[in-house]
Structures are given as C-alpha cells and as structure tokens.
User: Which sequence fits this backbone?
C-alpha cells in the first residue's frame, strides 16, 4: 500500500502493561509509538495489558504520533483475544509479529478490515517472503525484529551488524519496491548513546525511514540522525537551484560542488526539503 511518508524517525516501544510509561509517552518527542502486547508483556499480564491499553487510548493525548499496536501471533493463546480487543479500540495500525507470508496479513486484515497492517520481519521465512508480504494491499510498514532474526540465524551480535546486513537489505528492497515504510530494529544497550548513534547512522545509510527504540533516552539520537542535517538541506536547495538554472538554458545536467546533478538528484533533493518541512511543522 503506497503511503504518504508521515514522520517515522523514532518509533518507541511501550509495554502496554506499564501505565507510567503510557502516560509519559504523551509528552515524549517520538514520531510513532508501538504499544506492545507481545514480548514486553509477561504471560500473566496479557489481559491486564489489554485493559490498560484500552484506557490509555480512550484517554488519548498522543497527538499526531502514529499509534501502532503490536499484538501476539495467531499461533499463541493470546492472539485471538488481542484482535477481539482491538475491534473496539482507537489506534492507527496493527503490528503483527513474525510475519512469514501474505496469508498472515490476510488473516489479520479479514478480522480488522479497515486497519492498516504493519509486519515484523524477523524470521528467515519473513525475509525470504518479504516481497509477497510487502505487496499485500493492507500492508503499510515493515519493522525489523533484529533480536528474533539474530536468534533464528544463530548469528552473533556485532557492532557493524555484518551478519544481518543481507537480511536488512532484502527487506528494504521489498519495502522500496512496493512503497512500504521500513523501520530498523532496536538497539538493546539503551544506555550506550555512542553505539546507538552509530547504528542509527548505519540504518539511515541503508535507507531505513527510522529506528525502533526501547527507552526515551534513545529518542533524541534517532530524531537527529533520521532528520536531514542543515548541510543536507543547504545542498538540496543548491542542487535544485543549479538544476533549474541549467534547465532554463536547455541543459539536462548541472554541477554542484564538483558533482553532477541530474533530474533524479533533484527528486531526492525535493524529498529532503519535504521531510525537513514536515519536521519543522511538527515542531511548531
Ligand atoms: C528497558 C526498560 C525495562 C528500562 O526500564 P526502567 O528501568 O524503568 O527505565 P528508567 O528507570 O530509566 O525509566 C525512566 C523513565 O522513562 C520511562 N520509560 C522507560 N521506558 C519507557 C518506554 N519504553 N516508553 C515510555 N516511557 C518509558 C519510565 O517509566 C520512567 O519514567 P518516570 O517514572 O517518569 O521517570 C524499559 O525502558 C522498557 O520496558 N522498555 C521497553 C522494552 C520493550 O518494549 N521491549 C519489547 C520491544 S523490543 C522487541 O521486541 C524487538 C523485536 O521484536 C525483535 O525481535 O528484535
Ligand atoms: Mg521480535
């Protein structure tokens, strides 16, 4: 489902059972929230978490932040009850864990027909079937589950994420081919700002639209890294101006800072300006 990119630089997980965190999120600078009913909620708390989440969503106060609810998988004892509960809650999208096929999306879509579906891509089959998942008409976003993926691949955690790069790129290819938002996985060491910054930079270099986060202390870094910098905005303006000047005299190519600028670079430059504008408007 091609979408207008709303801001998704920072996507904060909040365990749906934690009332204090749900309250705190109303004042946090996060672009989107994943209200989690899955891994962050203990089995004994699943029912309470649904009730606590319902109360928080009814009270509202989350402003323009995208409200995504992650449910338990259909194969678990909680999946069905989660979907039933969501039928009467106010939120923006449902996030399904461990998606491995388009049929997984169809099942949720038939139960919640008007709700955009997001997919956790976090298993080898999810990666291998990323395109058939991305092409589903109800599918709006991918969230990389790098912890589950590392577990399934039996790979080791490395600062450069070398063992995961192929999988991350496969998912991104599918997302970009079908106009789907793509959000990078979490950085577990939530007190390590320098490590988080490096991983955010890598995610942005790869092409992700933002990063999933587990703690409020991670928000500023993700928002900074996934925003166009002042230098990028300046370059975009100069590229557009140079290209338009060249075009006016019948040239198809301009040169800025010793590098060619063609029509395709202007498309990217306009995207940079449009994201910078959306960020400025969100801060007003
Ligand atoms: C990691 C935590 C357990 C740490 O919690 P805690 O020790 O309570 O942190 P602090 O004392 O530093 O908290 C300070 C204040 O911030 C609030 N807080 C903490 N976390 C959040 C949050 N995520 N959202 C909103 N607010 C939050 C606390 O309430 C404190 O507030 P105050 O009282 O005003 O001082 C904890 O951060 C946490 O539970 N994080 C979320 C963990 C989670 O959601 N995990 C599941 C998602 S990751 C995943 O599943 C990935 C994927 O599937 C994969 O496979 O990779
Ligand atoms: Mg997971």
Assistant:
């Amino acid at each position: 489902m091609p979408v207008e990119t709303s801001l998704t630089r920072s996507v904060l997980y909040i365990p749906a059972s934690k009332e204090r965190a749900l309250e705190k999120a109303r004042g946090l600078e996060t672009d989107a929230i994943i209200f989690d009913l899955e891994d962050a909620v203990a089995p004994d708390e699943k029912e309470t978490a649904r009730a606590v989440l319902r109360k928080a969503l009814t009270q509202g106060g989350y402003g323009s932040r995208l409200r995504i609810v992650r449910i338990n998988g259909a194969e678990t004892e909680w999946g069905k009850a989660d979907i039933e509960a969501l039928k009467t809650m106010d939120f923006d999208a449902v996030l399904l864990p461990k998606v491995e096929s388009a049929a997984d999306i169809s099942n949720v879509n038939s139960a919640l027909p008007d709700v955009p579906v997001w997919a956790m891509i976090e298993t080898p089959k999810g990666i291998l079937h990323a395109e058939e998942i991305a092409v589903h008409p109800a599918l709006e976003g991918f969230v990389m589950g790098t912890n589950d993926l590392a577990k399934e691949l039996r790979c080791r955690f490395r600062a450069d994420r070398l063992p995961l790069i192929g999988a991350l790129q496969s998912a991104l290819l599918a997302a970009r081919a079908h106009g789907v938002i793509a959000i990078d996985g979490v950085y577990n060491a939530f007190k390590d700002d320098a490590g988080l910054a490096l991983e955010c930079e890598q995610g942005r270099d790869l092409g992700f639209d933002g990063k999933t986060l587990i703690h409020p202390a991670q928000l500023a870094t993700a928002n900074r890294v996934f925003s166009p910098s002042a230098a990028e905005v300046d370059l975009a303006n100069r590229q557009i101006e140079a290209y338009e000047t060249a075009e006016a005299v019948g040239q198809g190519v301009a040169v800025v800072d010793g590098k060619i600028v063609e029509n395709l670079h202007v498309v990217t430059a306009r995207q940079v300006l449009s994201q910078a504008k959306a960020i400025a408007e969100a801060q007003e």
About this structure: The chain has two domains: 10-225, 230-283.
